[in-house]
Amino acid sequence: MAFMIPLVSFMASCTFDEVIDPNGPSVDGVLKNASKGQLNELVVGIESTSRNGMGTEALANGTMARELYLFNAEPRYTGDMLGKDGLTLDNNSFYSTGSWNGNYRCIKNVSLLLEAVTNTDAVTEAEMNGYLGFAKTMMAEELIQILKSYGKARLDVSDPDNLGPIVEFDEGMARVRSLLDEGQQHLSNAGNSFVFNLSTGFDGFDTPATFSEFNRALAGVAAVYAGEGEAALTALSNSYFDLTGDLEIGPKHIFGLGGGDQSNPVFRVPSTVDKPNNGDQIIVHNTWLADAENGDTRVAEKTALRPNPTTQDDLSGTHEALLYESDTSPIDFLRNEELILVYAEANILANNLQDAEDALNVIRNSASLPDYTGAQTVEALTTELLKQRRYSLWAENHRMFDLRRYGLSNTLPIDRAGDQVFNIMPIPLPENN
Amino acid sequence: MKMKQSFLKSVFFITFSAIPFLLAAQGGVTGNVTEASEGLPLPGVNVVVKGTMTGTTTDFDGNFDINVGSFPATLVFSSLGYANTEVRVTGVTNLNVSMEESATGLEEVVVTGLASSVKRENLANAVATVSADELVGTTSQSTVDGALYGKIPGVNITSTSGAPGGGFALRLRGISSINGNNQPLIIVDGVYYNNVEIPSGLRFASGANRGNEENSGNRLADLDPNDIQNIEVLKGSSAAAIYGQRGNAGVVIITTKRGKTGKTKISFSQDVGMNKIANRLGIRPWTADKVETVFNAAERAKFEATIAENGELYDFEDIIYGDTGFITETRLSATGGNDKTKFYLGGSYRDEGGIIKNTGFDRFSLRTNIDHRISDVFDFTSTTSYSRSNASRSFTGNENDGGLSYGYTLAFTRPWVNLFPDANGNYPVNPNYSGNPIFVRDKALNDDSNDRLVQGITLNTNILNTDKDRIKIVTSGGLDYLANQTYVYVPETHQAQVQPGPGGFISVGKNNFTQLNTQLIGVWNREAMEGDLDLTTQVGTAYLYQKSNLVNSRGSLLAAGQTSVDQSVNQVIDQFRSEEKDFGYFGQVEGNYKDQIIATVGYRVDKSTRNGDPNKFYGFPKASLALNMANFDFWTMESVSQLKLRAAYGETGSPANYGSTFTSLGANNIGGNIGQSVVGSKGDALVKPETASELEFGFDVGIFNNKLSLEATYYDKKVKDLILTRALPSSSGFTQETTNLGDLKNSGVELALKAFVFDNENFKWNSAVQWYRNRSEVTRLEVPAFPQPGAGFGLGLGTFFIQEGQSATQLVGNLNLDGTGTKPTKVGDVEPDFQMAWSNNFTFFRQLDFSFLFQWKNGGENLNLSTYLSDLGQVTPDLDTPEGQARLASTANAVRFVEPAGYLRLREAAIHYSLSQNTVENLFGSTVEGVKFGLSGKNLFTITDYSSYDPEVSVNGGSGLSTGIEVGPFPSARQFFFSLNVNF
Fold first, then answer.
1. How far is the C-alpha of B769 from the C-alpha of B443, rounded, in Å?
2. Tell me: domain A34-261+332-410, CATH 1.25.40.390, correct?
3. In Å, how far is A424's CA from the nearest CA of chain B?
4. Using one digit for the tens of pLDDT, what is the confidence trace for A318-338?
5. Which is the CATH superfamily of the domain at B2-101?
6. Do A21 and B496 touch (CB under 8 A)?
7. Are B684 and B737 in contact (CB under 8 A)?
8. Which of A188, B3, B300, B712 is most buried, by the most CB atoms less than 10 A from its CB?
């Protein structure tokens, strides 16, 4: 009974204090007078959330582009995404919302950093430029992913109550390019080092000067996607693109298994003879194997023959994915191998066909294939380019977009009578509201 | 609280009636009162000379002595639970009065204020009361909510899991919230009782989408149903208004057993029973040819090898769900007391095995309830209970590639695959799915344990007692402390975990919940108009404090065979804390004019830290009127003993879910650096509570001395400012926001008919029929229609869909039925068309009892995604029928999955035999008072068109509006019991 006595007296005069979330800092709290520590936490948040949506981008877009099947408990991978029996893509399912939500979560963190860093006295001008250059480059990187999956993007998103319109691809890519240019400007005024730490995934790209090379690499990609070969070549010349260099060079998304971290979403447990993984596995589309040139070492590097063939929902395959060694293996943002292909594409666009062919040969040779012997025409080299991209960048969210931008999606195979090809994700339902 | 009141009344009666009766000495009547069924003496019966204030109560042996002013006079005998009896006396005499148990319950008192009650006869609301006998008298019950089926008009109960220890969703008069709480407020002896559903973190191993897919039970399971004296259910806002902003989903007021003055009684009970799967789906009739057609030649070879070796296929349904779970329950209680102190002591232990091996539920419960009168001024009641309950629930429900949930493994596992361990204990890899269900059953754990202390205390201070005025102060408080622990263990040798997979998984949850509530109430009773008008006025304050701290530690990549979370490489810790406070004032005036006109008005204001403005008060008025036509002087129809017209209006509220006001950042990291990111949900710093207003009216008729009674009620309940989670354009960085966005209404009809068909020495037959229906409609929605997050699996497979002008519980999928394009299209509604219950109780020769309870849910649909999974796995039993083939060939959308979910179920049936007094005396002498034993069962049979295990199902637990969606549930069980009860 005694425990009631203080409460009875309390009840006589009862005013509740303002309620504060005990479980996390408030958004409004970082927007004004943020400390350097708070800004740096947002930087880490941006790098961390730039991994959002990568699984969907690789696996759903890869399924739609007939690079692979995902055989698991989720029936929509073999249903909706392949347009089985009249099924269509749903604008409110995980595959259509996942990468959009994930990428825009990262962009929101970028917006918070952009606002926070301009509303604090805790940083010098050069430090502020470092934050801004990093933030704008990362925002552009995320917007590229959105445009590849959805063909459209919403650009003005900093005020959640007053969002800008969803724009078409060209306008979106123009914004990507201007963001990258602004970012480069900031980086060039950011001094010799950042005041924030990036993860080891950015080793070699973690100063304003070297991060700027990543910025320019993205600018090259964006220029090619905008159809501007010369601009792409200019951008690449200021990046870490190296025709004779290590193909693997470039910043990486790294993964971990601790709390708040993310694991590699494209890794699946490899099958062994005693323990074939039949539960959740990325199965290689048969045509990717069948269409490979004899001796292309990328096939054996990226995939493995399963101990047993597998079938689900009337689809079957003999090989499974072997892209990553473990669930903490890194995934590239943009490696030199892709830059060489971007360089080749830029040269095709700019009509420097010999340079394009030379670049493609670098890729072919790296896969133990002999030099290209086909015609040196824009059309033939474009076909070869798309083929090399298909094998070099398999299951890395390129094929669907490549076929779409070249108008070739209708060339994809139909595995089951009644299947359909979709080459673009529907904009998530809540965006239309 | 109800018993408290009757106790108080007795006290008042003794105090008041003693004075006049000492002064007058015209003539004494003495006598003895017994109860009719067993002839035992009845203590505490009020005896009043009709039309006067003269009265007394019977002593422990049922004896009374009363002075009557002038003869002839009529003595009125009344006691809780018994029909009033009137005896006309013409002179000094000695009477033997036998009181029948109340036929209709009209005399029982029902709580209508926070410190007052009225006789049911005078009640203006349809308040349902469930007695101890109705609750647990027929068969053994493991949880309170699971024992209420068919016993309350207007309730919709859905079992969310067949696991022992339950998981139940209780809905009173439809849903009252889309996104917030729909489980009623539960008050046990004045203590706000936590009915939380606590997630275990197993989703991090199974890949389930959210905590509510983890198949946890709700914590009402910690309360032993056998301790309960009665349950009152305030179904709507008009009855629950005095509970203010916690009353929106209705209030369930539970009163536990109290001591009775008189000889100390000891009661011992033992139940022995079993759980068996209620409904088997069976196995697809395979032939070698069919195996080859469906799969391929290699599978045919495996099939033939298995047939050659075993002569039959493996029936995995039987292997996993076919266990017999043994149930034992032992109870011992003692009650007794004198005129100052009364006590009830109860202890019980229930141990229940499930239909899946290694699953089960056990509960140890201790209770001490004490009523003590300190003086004429002070008395108090203390209720104390401690319970410890443990459950092993194994793995069912939704998952994504965890290889754990049996619903998934069995849907894909082909019956010619041997999954039993070899002689060395090595379990084979399941070639058809990511887990071996026999391994999971034997080696993986999903356990929880709950230590719970609930203490209630009420102190009454009678500060004024005059002929006309009585004033008392009621100070009450309650404490509910729950320490919950969850433990999930998936060995590193589990197929989906084997390295380089996650390498095993452990999740340890330590969750504490503390609730504290206090009330301070002044109650003033006044008799006005020379006793014709009774006025009861109360004013008070109420305070509620709730605090929780949930810590979940998880580890993966385990050391071989180790079961502690620190024996892991990758460790994650989550913590969630909450603290909330409510404070309110209330006042209420009840007036009763000669039991003819009974009117109540009241008002409560509440504030809560869960609202946007924690210091803003919200008001909740109430008013009600009951007219007892049969009590008016003009009433002459003798056969109609009661005709009451009643109407009630009231408002209640429900504050926003904890955290709705916050827009916060969440921690994340990469490469060992700590980072902050928006978490996706945007709060509303101005959020208001949801508020409901309800108008209820109806009539009660009793004829032939209430041998036949009908209670009819119509209600119309409007909920406004619904707090909804709506999807935001996620390009804003936020995927959802929670704010006040809509209104809905529920309207319905409830009918309850009771009949005492036969009532004589050798044969009694009571029968009761209930019929009720509810219809909901979303009447305002400020945003376009949207699929409710976390209640379904998107418009592709089917989901709950919030849409203006439509039922709040409709099921919708993206379909193109009319050929005009794909759009969200309604395929069903989980709300039943109506529900009905029919209970019967027969007593032969006072010794043999036979009772049964049928429950019928008519209409309502479910989305059955379990069959979709087994169709994908090609193992659905009916796949060789034309219907099965047609289904298999049809598009995977909501039309394919929706199924009618109505059913008729024999919910309870029992036959009990009591040894006669003579036999008991011959066998045991005078130490034993009574022996009763019998057989009973629960869920004995079900008639339904639903194709899966049980039309009662919810993959998303019990709290939201998500009941009726099925993905691999824990199948329901049928229970049988032998019971023995001995009273000393």
1. 47
2. yes
3. 18
4. 999 999 999 999 999 999 999
5. Carboxypeptidase-like, regulatory domain (2.60.40.1120)
6. no
7. yes
8. B3
